[in-house]
Amino acid sequence: MNNTSPFATPAEAVARLEACRLFEGSPKEFWPRFAQTCAELVQAPAAAVVVRVGEGWRLAAGWPTAREFPLPLAGPVFGPLAERALAEGLAAAATNATGGLGLLLVTLSTGDGGETCLLAVALARTSRDEIVAAGSLLRLASDTPLLYQRQRLLEKTKREVEHFAQALEILAATNAHTRFLAVAMSLVNELAARFHSTRVALGWTDGAYVRVQAISGTDRFEKRMTIVQRLEAAMEEARDQDEEIVWPALSESTAITRDHAAYAEAERVPFLLSVPVRVEGEARGVLTLERSETAFGEYDALALRVIADQVSRRLDELRKQDRWFGARWAVAFRTWCAGFLGPKQTWIKVGAIAGAVLLAIAVFVPFPYRVDGTFIVRADALLHLPAPFEGYLAEVDVRPGDLVKQGDVLVKLDTSDLLVQLAAAQAELQRHASEADKAEADRQLSELRVARAQQAESQARVDLVRYRLSRAEMRAPFDGVVVEGDLREKIGAPVKTGDILLKVSQLKGLYVEMRVVEKDIDQIQNSHTADIAFASRPEDTFKVTIDRIEPSAMPDRDGNFFLVHGLLDHRADWFRPGMSGVAKIEAGHRSLLWMATHRLVDFLRLKLWW
Description:
Pfam families: BSH_CzcB (PF25973), GAF (PF01590). It is found in: Cell envelope. Its main location: other. This protein is about 40% helix and about 25% strand. It has helices spanning about 10-20, 25-40, 80-90, 130-140, 145-175, 180-195, 225-240, 260-265, 300-320, 325-340, 345-365, 415-440, 445-470, 590-610; strands spanning about 45-55, 55-65, 90, 100-105, 115-125, 200-205, 210-215, 245, 270-280, 280-290, 365-380, 380-385, 390-395, 405, 410-415, 475, 480-485, 495, 500-505, 510-515, 530-535, 540-550, 560-570, 580-590. It has five domains: about 10-140, 2-Layer Sandwich (Beta-Lactamase), CATH 3.30.450.40; about 160-320, GAF domain (Beta-Lactamase); about 325-360, no CATH class; about 380-505, CATH 2.40.50.100; about 510-610, Beta Barrel (Elongation Factor Tu (Ef-tu), domain 3). It has about 600 residues and is of the alpha+beta class. A hairpin with a 2-residue loop joins β6 (about 200-205) and β7 (about 210-215). The N and C termini lie far apart (about 100 Å).
């Protein structure tokens, strides 16, 4: 082979293929390398791995990566060729007349039934024998992805066995102790030795926070030390996310590592690993490892997770046994209740008494009851301003939310076409007037009548154009606020006669229109007041006096509802028509039992009556 050739020698290509079969890296690194090796094996300018996704094909990896694959991997030619390759294991297309490249597809064995993979190779071949030879050579390499997958599975199995063996050894070492702190110290020291860590710390949940319980190589430490507080912050970061955190973060990690970064920078720790200690799916503690030389990887996190899962139950039980005096007081109170109420089933009796008290309160003690609903603020006057004639928007002086006064100019329409029409109509009017005068002077009665009629028609056209010119400026009919019609971005756009351009509402006479579902309307027949909270300001509530209830129900997608009109006792300056929120209408006093069961009782009455 020429020394200037961009391809590797056959011996080098075969060696690289063997290296691919024994490759231990990630799939993201394997597939481009495999594509390059296959291309070098047949001295092809480009190769790619394509995967079937739904009804189409997606490029998974390619070589060279600096540019796209030179042939189309979709379309009427590629589809049938790919199906033939899947059926026969190999398929080839004729040499491209323009680029001098042919397409060779080889089915790849991946061991994954959920995907269908093909190796696409662009060949600079001219004879059928060369294409067949290249295809036969590539079919020998088609099982490389399967061997790679099996090699990864074997390595994963070996690591899992090692992790479980290591976890059992550490569990055996910690079982020699019976107190929580002793077990914790034994655990962190064992982890420091086995993971070659400079420091290992165990934190455990104490109330709402994580507190450091043990640090390797340290029998005692001051919990108020700055380093301990920073370490606890990093542990809480791992517990809150319930996720293993590696610092520096791995490329595929999405975890937040702010507190880990702060701790690493403050204490000059180059590498950190935090793993939650879970009990029944809940993170009760956190193990944090530190290194100064070697970075933690995915396999370190997996190994530490296995160990944490094995020791978590014992740590949790010992933590409960080493309780503080408050927990011991709770046990003493339970013992006193047992002696007072009876020798057996103490907590059942206590629960029965508490339940009886709660039931009595629920049945006999009345509480305020309010019916829930929604509301919207309405105005007594809401004016729609339509376009008076067909034309174009020339100027918009307001937008929704602007306060306007009576007579303010809101919108202007373009009058250039109307001015042209006015000039033409006036000229036509003048012409017909001249014709009428001439006919009158010549005593031609019939022509005079025609000219007078045409003159009247032209005058009407002039009056119409002048009327439209007077309507070109749309003004506010009263003091209020613009509630709809943002036309700032539509200047120059055409409008048709009758198109609603703006809606202007008065700020006086605002009232509340509440919606109450039909099944609750009987509860508010005698109600007079309600409270409302706006969706924009839920922290504030406002009193409403009920004015009237509409006598007929309104249909809705979720069922019928009634409209309840209310007057605002207090109106703030920021109230606007169309604002909505939640309304609670006073409906007297009811017991808690009635509140909890009246829906079910009503349902059963409707379903079971006869």
